[in-house]
Design a protein that fits this description.
mainly alpha, 28 residues, 1 helix
Length: 28
Amino acid sequence: MGWPGRFRMGRWRIFRSQATGYSSWIRH
């Protein structure tokens, strides 16, 4: 608690982008 929302969103976006790329790589 106390972490800036921007930081959390940034991490979440990075995590989602990485997960999507990983899944697409496996599918490919």
